[in-house]
Amino acid sequence: MPSMLSACARTIGLGLAGAAVLSVAAFADSDHHHKARQLDRVFVIMMENHGFDEVIGQADPSDPTGATLLTPFTTHIALNYGLATYYFGATHPSLPNYLADVAGDYFGIQSDADSCFAPDHGTTCIAGLTAPNIVDQLEQKHISWEVLQETMPSIGYLGTRYPTAASGGPKLYAQKHNPFVYFTSVATNPARLQNIKPFDLTAFQTELNDPQHMARYVFIAPNQCNDEHGYTGGSPIPAGCAPADGDAALLKRGDTFLQQTVTAIQNSPSFTDDSAIFVVWDENDFSGNLGCCGAPGVGGGHIASIVITKHGKPKKSALPMNHYSMLATIEDGFGLPRLANAKTANAMWDLFPEREDVGFGH
């Protein structure tokens, strides 16, 4: 990435975080000026546990010149596509934010407890949620969907972690990052479980090259090394994932995952004029005190959320947004009614190309 981008990121990317609070009126365009449009296909990529300033424009401490970024690809897409500068997690820790992403509510859950559907669940587990979720909505309208979980061992896996304690190895797959298996309508439905699959980049690229059969709603969760979360017990620990490797190594791994995955989508025939990629972090892991959007305390903290479209241009919005905003946007784009808290959330349409941009909105 050119050194000019590095300098730009430090002056623009980092500055936006602090400036967002003071410039909502100046930057934000109302939903009234950016109406919902039809979406062909949506990809959601969920990253982990880092705040806005940590993932955009942060200099690599190993380079004394300050010319190298820890996250060059993430910074590039943030500066060249739609960037929500005032976007927040719903609460802490991880699981309730994932639930908010797919159901518009976190149901008062503020833990990462196992699903009671997991055969190896702990002493305390979360009973099957019966509230409607986006899978219910998609199937009612015959819209195809799939969930791709990196390092999950098999299709429809209901276990809490993988590798398991018995098999050893670091727990790279974590059920807390797979919100769908907490819902009774998914976890007890064998047909729906067939749509929850392990993520493999090569297999994913094959899917992408067949747009007639590629799902229209795709939820991607990297494993706990590639999502920037980090080590969760077991060995051997992958390089760049151990506590001793430091946070910089985790950010680099996550940036590499995003570069490979986002680029694969962008270069495929499945990424149409009316498709969108949402890259979002679940929470900021208590790295700041900025709050928003009626959430308790400071909610899940200030995080980055990026919208990539085929004809995307650099757009920024400081309109107050959170995970309910992303769900609302996806529901609007698929012509679905909004669920729960998504009903009153600000949508993210001001981060999309204008209607007159070539090829979009037809």
Walk me through this protein's architecture.
The protein is of the alpha/beta class. The chain has a single domain (3-351), classed as 3-Layer(aba) Sandwich (Alkaline Phosphatase, subunit A). It is built from 11 helices and 13 strands. Strands 1, 2, 5, 8, 9, 10, 11, 12 and 13 form a 9-stranded mixed sheet that branches. The chain is globular and about 45 Å long. The protein starts with a helix and ends in a 29-residue tail after the last helix.
Assigned CATH architecture: 3-Layer(aba) Sandwich
Q: What is the strand tally?
A: 13
Mean pLDDT: 89
**What overall form do the CA principal axes indicate?**
globular
Order of helices and strands: HHEHHEHEEHEEEHHEHEHEEEEH
Radius of gyration in whole Å, from Cα?
19 Å
Fraction of helical residues:
25-40%
Total number of domains: 1
CATH fold field value: Alkaline Phosphatase, subunit A
Number of helices, where a helix is a run of at least 4 consecutive DSSP H or I residues: 11
CATH superfamily: Alkaline Phosphatase, subunit A
**Could you tell me how far the N terminus lies from the C terminus, measured between alpha carbons in angstroms?**
34 Å
Structural class call reads alpha/beta
CATH class: Alpha Beta
What proportion of the residues form beta strands (DSSP E)? 15-25%
